[in-house]
Amino acid sequence: MKNPLVWNSMIHGYSRHGYPGKAILLFKEMNFDPLETLHRDAFVLSTVFGACADLFALGCGKQVHARVFIDGFEFEHDKVLCSSIVNFYGKCGDLDSAARVVGFVKEVDDFSLSALVSGYANAGRMSDARRVFDNKVDPCSVLWNSIISGYVSNGEEMEALALFNKMRRNGVWGDFSAVANILSAASSLLNVELVKQMHDHAFKIGATHDIVVASTLLDAYSKCQHPHEACELFGELKVYDAILLNTMITVYCNCGRVEDAKMVFNSMPNKTLISWNSILVGLTQNACPSEALDTFSRMNELDVKMDKFSFASVISACAIKSSLELGEQVFGKAITLGLESDQIISTSLVDFYCKCGLVEMGRKVFDGMIKTDEVSWNTMLMGYATNGYGIEALTLFNEMGYSGVRPSAITFTGVLSACDHCGLVEAGRNLFCTMKHEYDINPGIEHYSCMVDLFARAGCFGEAMYLIEEMPFQADAYMWLSVLRGCVSHGNKIIGKMAAEKIIQLDPENSGAYIQLSNILATSEDWEGLAQVRELMRSKNVQKIPGCSWMDC
Question: Other C-beta atoms within 10 Å of 221: how many?
Fold first, then answer.
């Protein structure tokens, strides 16, 4: 007969280190021997319930629950065993059984209630979770954390913030989990000021060196477009784990610090699939397709199990290189793994074919998709736009509305760009109004840029200048360059001269603006002005870029 400590230690060890199946098998082996059943105590039963919860093994857990009754355990007096049973039923989605267990106990503890609240929250039943929470007088920090976490995970961040403030007013300061929950809420709301406030609070209570809090802080700063603060925090940390380092790879890539991202990736002794995917996405987004493909090759050599995100990133890298043969080879490998119908991979394939100039192939893939979303429609729209298929882009935009997919700001960027490239002035004008008045989307500078370029190309300078004057942004050099190109094309010397002068103010090194201004002044026979421009070029050491022929390349 084995020592009871051995049984308990082995079962607990398997469960704790990620082997719940082995823990359950060992528990069953213990039950086969009548002499060993004497060692079946509340501690080992709690561990087995946890293992069943990890595997979502509802039937197996119910058998263990029956054993609790047969053995005569009074689990209502054992807080750990009671909460483990409630947690098991909650994780497995049998919330009625979880509630019955709680109702069976005369004086239910906060840990069991916390497990029930988490179960309701995981099922999206926040009204039931709140009812359980509100019925508890003077809840402890664990119960506060469960209800706050539930609201965050269900997209009710404002309610989570209100509860956090209420918790503080009630004199419960919360632990590191509370900080992580509110940081998650702040990042979802893109509220960087709240992130900074929680960062200060975390520093005061010593939570910034907690791995979970630090990872959540890094992620929050990254989502709020404040990578500098994330990089500063990372430099202060002494301890890391894989999740934190994966987050930092993404942060560095998002702010263009690819070499730093590669350094973090290469320093990781145990890379997870998320690590590989993070660096793949980062390299692709930062226009390093060759390095992304090299990374993909290393994954193949090391036999790293890939998923849809791996293949989607590599297909995007092939799209940047316009490497048709290689992209189709990668997709072929995805097919062998049964991923050919995956929505993310199909969307990447649409983008790939369009960037290779095979728009009809892209449309064929798009039409064959089982499920589409806003990203899929926008990808096909941008494919049409960049390849000059204006009418097709407008038709697709209308089809998008009929399918029930609501267009976003990105959608309008694509369709306005298509109108711009194809000179569809009236369609562009109508879409710009539709965007504002029917969909209540405030145009961004990219939408104004499309419209200004569209009007300038068509010689509608009055409308172009009206937009520049009325928009809530300052026109940049690129926007004025659109106006200048239109003026040169249509011979509008007055506005062209003003546009060139604006470009020179915003971008003094732009030699093209000086040349165009010189040409306008020359055709106007303003020789004095022409001499002044050339003198200005000499004083600023602005060099005219020499022309070249493809024969010289």
Answer: 27
As given in the structure block, the two tokens for residue 480 are: 């004025």
Q: Where are the alpha helices (DSSP H) in 387-510?
A: 390-402, 409-422, 425-437, 445-458, 461-470, 477-490, 493-506
Query: What are the C-alpha distances in Å from 157 to residues 309, 443, 528?
Result: 28, 27, 64
3-state helix, strand, coil in the chain (%, to 5): 75, 0, 25
Structure tokens of 482? 């659109």
CB–CB of 214/237 below 8 Å? Answer: yes
Per-residue exposure over 282-310, b if at least 16 CB sit within 10 Å of its own CB, e if not: bbbbbebbebbbebbeebeeeebebbbbb
Q: What is the DSSP letter of 241?
A: -
Given a contact cutoff of 8 angstroms between Cβ atoms, the answer to whether 341 and 370 are in contact is: yes
Amino acid code (one letter) for 451: M
- Per DSSP, the residues of 337-390 read TT-TT-HHHHHHHHHHHHHTT-HHHHHHHHHT-SS--HHHHHHHHHHHHHTT-H
Could you tell me the two tokens for 55?
A: 């595997």
pLDDT of residue 539: 63
Give Cα 94 distance to the centre of its chain: 31
| Single-letter code of the amino acid located at 171 | G
Q: Domains of the chain by range and CATH?
A: 474-553 (1.25.40)
- The contacts found for 260-267 with CB under 8 angstroms, 24 or more apart, are 260/231
Per-residue pLDDT, 199: 93
SS (H, E, C) 141-193: HHHHHHHHHHHHHCCCHHHHHHHHHHHHHCCCCCCHHHHHHHHHHHHHCCCHH
Structure tokens at 309: 């995100």
Residue 552's pLDDT is: 44
pLDDT at position 549:
42
Residue with tokens 């119910």: 62
Max CA-CA distance within the chain? 110
Which residue stretches of the chain have pLDDT < 70? 1-5, 32-40, 74-77, 510, 512, 524, 529-530, 532-533, 535-553
Dist CA 30 CA 452 (whole Å): 77
User: What are 494-539's pLDDT values in tens digits?
Assistant: 898 888 888 878 877 767 677 777 777 777 677 776 676 676 666 6
Sign of CA dihedral 393, 396, 400, 402: positive
Q: How many other CB atoms sit within 10 Å of the CB of residue 477? A: 17
Distance CA 32, CA 216 (A): 45
